[in-house]
């Protein structure tokens, strides 16, 4: 048995959680805060069999892997008001740990 910690941005957390639930994975969602930026993020705990760890990681990648998004430039002078810029969004931090014992009582 493994316990997977998945740290994602809050905006991605619902999509990732639903994607995992639909495939039958159990998820515990914790509100967390990054120590560096001190901004809210979400930590998901997923307990599963060792052979399913790769499937969980693939699902997380599919739902919130790093990607680029075009946004209207939120700063700048009026002449650049309508400029569109490409920004990097998404991504996740994943830790996989061993579980000595698991019981559902
Ligand atoms: P990421 O590396 O994508 O990390 C996103 C969040 O994942 C982190 O939020 C933290 O909550 C968690 N995390 C990442 N690596 C971790 C680890 N080894 N152990 C425990 N938790 C971990 P923040 O701490 O607020 O960091 C936000 C972003 O700031 C990071 O994005 C990274 O790009 C940068 N960063 C974080 N720590 C840094 C440092 N010591 N020096 C330079 N840049 C740092």
UniProtKB/TrEMBL annotation:
**Mind telling me which InterPro entries this protein's record contains?**
CdAMP_rec, N-reg_PII-like_a/b, N-reg_PII/ATP_PRibTrfase_C
A UniProt-annotated Pfam family: CdAMP_rec
Query: Which N-terminal stretch is annotated as signal sequence?
Result: none
Q: Which domain of life is it from?
A: Bacteria
Q: What is this protein called?
A: Uncharacterized protein YaaQ
Recorded source organism is Anaerocolumna jejuensis DSM 15929
Record lineage: Bacteria, Bacillati, Bacillota, Clostridia, Lachnospirales
């Amino acid at each position: 048995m493994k316990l997977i910690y998945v740290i994602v941005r809050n905006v991605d957390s619902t999509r990732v959680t639903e994607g995992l639930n639909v495939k039958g994975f159990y998820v515990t969602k914790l509100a967390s805060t990054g120590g560096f930026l001190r901004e809210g993020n979400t930590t998901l705990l997923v307990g599963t069999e060792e052979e399913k760890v790769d499937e969980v990681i693939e699902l997380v990648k599919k739902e919130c892997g790093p990607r680029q998004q075009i946004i209207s430039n939120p700063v700048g002078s009026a002449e650049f008001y309508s400029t569109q810029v490409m920004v990097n969004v998404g991504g996740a931090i994943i830790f996989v740990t061993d579980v000595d014992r698991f019981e559902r009582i």
